[in-house]
DNA sequence: CATCAATTTGACATCGATGTCAGACATCGG
DNA sequence: CCGATGTCTGACATCGATGTCAAATTGATG
């Protein structure tokens, strides 16, 4: 007999399938000795409930959808990893659904996944978690939704995020603490909502320390290492060049670092460089780049926690659950005292 | 009415549910006009078959499992992306299952996914596709399995891969064609099966061109950019230093490139550098690194194709389907004539 | 000990699709 | 015009679990 069903267990234990079902789902109203017996038989037969039958008859699918834009990015990979771990712990499964907002008919694709798989919830990664049209689809389907690191929190979703502003502020304070006063800042792209918050944190720290920000030292990049190199050239060519450069993400920081090397500017002796995200690129060069660890995996795992929480599920759409996870400065070799 | 079922469609079209089922699944024996009518109604009602009901009654689940070791790596992300696209085209869904071979009980985890979700097939990414114990679990479950870029092809699985040896040979020939004779080679870690094949290709090209390989110019790294930098130092300090360095992967090539910059060795004027994989890191620096594009996404998509192919599925385990996908040299700025 | 409430248990319908099989209908040759 | 063959179509059982509800059992109480 290849596949063990609930009937097999029931027969062997001498009870009804329904009782086995009760034991499996941890419901009340089963005598302790019966419960134990059933559990023993379950273990013996290595019985595993058929997820399909289960979700067909009950209202839950034990399936969460992870909706992402660009599944290839390292960011998405970390988020997914966290979600996967969260699901595993709670015996849920994760279905990854790429969403290409540029493709016509993406809305139907999404609707299709939701209704065909009867998803129990959706985790939405940036940047598409800021897409109103997508949120509308979830809301319309009444699907509990949790956004990871969104820029705004729609009323119909839970959110899990980190404090970009505060983290940038702390990083800046760390640089100031090292004695730096002329600090260059490489902004991220405008459409990325985190960019603004990071810059805000930078400025706030400078202001609090009463250090003037030289606007010539603030330049805008697009999160690519390419612009990091270009803007690095620009900043380092300044007559009174900065002693530290804070880039809004790690790729750009890497670009700055490479440029410094190219010009024989010793890091961190002559120049401190730091980034944001703790992306793989922050470890690609030597010295490795000081950065802010964004708890990507933890955020995703927390999103799973929220989604499987019955209290949250009850309020369709699941407003009201908002979590802010702690970040962490990762101090590495690319920063030092002036 | 929120959820449209097959009965609703049947009622509206004035036929039986079974006929609707036939139309949906593209079965024969339906009069053309009936078929058309049903399709019209399906579209009107925006009907989507419930995947659970479908797989409960039929023997198929329309679900494929992607088994990966480290879901965070860029490699895995590309593979997953390809698999996702392949699934989408064929209205399958993908369930990502991380496998931690270090964790006790991983075998039961895997068995659990297979039997609870009634997976239709497994795609296994490197490096765990070379794990005999894992393969044994799939074989035992009779699950059709396709390995992506394995080092060996077990008799019970299909495989999709690229020709590492040939690609490395072509890259070397390209360098030779540019006039390079002293070519450094950075080997990959021994446990990575592709490493040996890449080195083999390098040596074969050198041999064919009757250029002696200076063993002092052949050094072993571990695929990290860190060792790339260290070994770069070593190679560039050689009395008669190489005019070109071929690293077995892009991270190491990036390390070499950074080291060259640090020493003021112009790339590609004084030194050509190339890597392997077309990883993001190959684009992280400037000039961007010449490399070999490994068709990761295409391999995964091909794996899906094989898995959903009925012919393959019939032979349990699915021996006999082996695909070799074409690679591509990506010529960028880091290589040039001597 | 009878009665009633609370607890435990199982019979049966159900979720939404597909597989099986038999019946209805059309076509064709003799 | 008949029977044989082949093409459509639908009734019904089924997949494997859970929800509902009533029956059986237990325990408490007067």
From TrEMBL, chains A, B:
Positions of the HTH lacI-type domain: 4-58
Q: Which SMART domains match?
A: HTH_LACI
- Taxonomic superkingdom: Bacteria
Transcription regulation in keyword set: yes
Concerning PROSITE patterns, the annotation shows: HTH_LACI_1, HTH_LACI_2
Q: Which UniProt keywords apply?
A: DNA-binding, Transcription, Transcription regulation
Q: Which GO terms describe its molecular function?
A: DNA-binding transcription factor activity; transcription cis-regulatory region binding
Recorded hits in InterPro entries, A to Z, give: HTH_LacI, LacI/GalR-like_sensor, Lambda_DNA-bd_dom_sf, Peripla_BP_I
Q: Which residues form the signal peptide?
A: none
Q: What is this protein called?
A: LacI family DNA-binding transcriptional regulator
What is the organism field in this record?
Novosphingobium pentaromativorans
């Amino acid at each position: 007999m290849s596949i063990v069903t609930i009937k097999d267990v029931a027969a062997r234990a001498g009870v009804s399938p329904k009782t086995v079902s009760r034991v499996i789902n941890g419901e009340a109203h089963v005598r302790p000795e019966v419960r134990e017996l059933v559990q023993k038989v379950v273990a013996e037969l290595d019985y595993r409930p058929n997820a399909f039958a289960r979700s067909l008859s009950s209202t839950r699918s034990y399936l969460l959808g992870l909706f992402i834009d660009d599944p290839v990015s390292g960011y998405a990979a970390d988020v997914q990893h966290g979600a996967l771990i969260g699901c595993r712990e709670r015996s849920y499964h994760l279905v990854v659904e790429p969403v290409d907002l540029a493709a016509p008919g993406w809305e139907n694709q999404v609707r299709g996944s939701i209704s065909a798989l009867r998803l129990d919830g959706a985790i939405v990664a940036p940047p598409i978690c800021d897409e109103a049209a997508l949120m509308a689809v979830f809301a319309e389907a009444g699907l509990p939704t949790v956004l990871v690191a969104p820029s705004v929190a729609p009323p119909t979703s839970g959110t899990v995020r980190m404090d970009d502003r505060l983290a940038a502020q702390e990083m800046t304070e760390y640089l100031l603490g090292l004695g730096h006063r002329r600090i260059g800042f490489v902004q991220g792209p405008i459409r990325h909502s985190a960019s603004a918050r990071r810059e805000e944190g930078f400025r706030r720290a400078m202001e609090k320390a009463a250090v003037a920000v030289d606007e010539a030292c603030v330049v805008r990049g697009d999160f690519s290492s390419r612009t990091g190199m270009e803007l690095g050239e620009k900043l380092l060519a300044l007559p009174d060049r900065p002693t530290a450069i804070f880039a809004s993400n790690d790729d750009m920081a890497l670009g700055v670092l490479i440029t410094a090397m190219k010009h024989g500017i010793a890091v961190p002796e002559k120049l401190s460089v730091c980034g944001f995200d703790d992306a793989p690129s922050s470890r690609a060069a030597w010295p490795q780049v000081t950065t802010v660890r964004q708890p990507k995996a933890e955020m995703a795992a927390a999103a799973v926690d929220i989604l499987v929480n019955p209290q949250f599920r009850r309020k369709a759409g699941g407003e009201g659950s908002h979590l802010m996870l702690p970040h962490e400065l990762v101090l590495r070799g690319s920063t030092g005292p002036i």
